[in-house]
Design brief:
Length: 237
């Protein structure tokens, strides 16, 4: 008998929400009567593509996370772990946790997701997971409807061809062995910085294609106060 490798969702909620400027990390703020984190966990709980969830949570809020998960009956939640100083450090914490699990090998699928993207849909989660059957790395992405420019010292120095540009979202999915190797290589690079995990693969495993699947404008990242209003409006629409 053969078994499919498991699919693990790593929900990153290790940030403090500086740009939100609230007393609590933004993942604990309410939108339409439920914490941002609860909306996100519910999306992964409901996805048939996901077997288990690991939550990377900001220090001092682990108990609150378990309470939210219990309230929402998030039975797939396997662990709440501590993160790191940067988003990349929190990804590494999730990767290490996944690798420490019995019967989880390099072929497991790891879907790394911002807790702040609370309106992620089942379709996007399923598409990213399915893309990993044909590639070792994949992300949700949407076209840019704005012209994007490169700015230096307050002056535009380039206007890249918009048709070749996309805005990446999460989840970003990887075969576990690949993303672990890419982050290991990053750890040995003193100049390493990254704002997402696909760029870690692109930089340190450049021979591995990173596929894109359609994201959605709805899959916004709650970042500042206006995003809370927007997310609530989208939920009620
Ligand atoms: N050290 C960090 C930083 C960020 N994140 C998570 O990564 C996602 C995207 O990060 P961001 O939107 O930047 O969240 P914050 O870091 O909390 O926000 P800010 O940058 O405004 O402080 C969020 O769900 C956040 O909780 C994380 O797990 N660990
Ligand atoms: C991972 C990400 O959501 C992709 O768009 C984004 O890079 C996170 O950026 P942040 O500054 O950590 O919110």
């Amino acid at each position: 008998m053969t078994f499919d490798p498991p699919t693990i969702a790593a929900v990153l909620a290790g940030g403090t929400g500086a740009r939100m400027g609230a007393a609590l990390p933004k993942q604990l703020l309410d939108v339409a009567g439920r914490p941002v984190l609860q909306h996100t966990l519910e999306a992964f709980q409901a996805s048939p593509a996901v077997d288990r969830i690991v939550l990377v949570m900001a220090e001092g809020h682990h108990e609150a996370a378990w309470t939210i998960a219990k309230t929402a009956n998030v039975t797939k939640l396997s662990a709440v772990i501590g993160g790191g100083a940067t988003r990349a450090d929190s990804s590494v914490a999730a990767i290490r946790w996944a690798r420490s699990q019995p019967e989880v090998g390099d072929d497991a699928k790891l879907l790394i997701h911002d807790a702040a993207r609370m309106l992620v849909t089942g379709r996007i989660i399923a598409d990213v997971a399915a893309a990993l059957d044909g590639a070792a790395a994949a992300t949700a992405a949407i076209p840019s409807s704005d012209t994007v420019v490169e700015v230096h010292d307050g002056r535009i120095i380039a206007v890249p061809d918009r048709s070749a540009l996309a805005r990446v979202q999460t989840p970003q999915g990887f075969r576990l062995g690949l993303i672990a190797a890419a982050h290991d290589a990053a750890a040995a690079d003193p100049a390493f910085t990254a704002t997402d995990d696909c760029s870690v693969v692109l930089r340190y495993r450049p021979d591995t294609p990173v596929r894109t699947v359609p994201g959605s404008e709805r899959n916004l990242k709650v970042t500042g106060p206006a995003d809370l209003v927007l997310a609530e409006a989208l939920l009620r629409a």
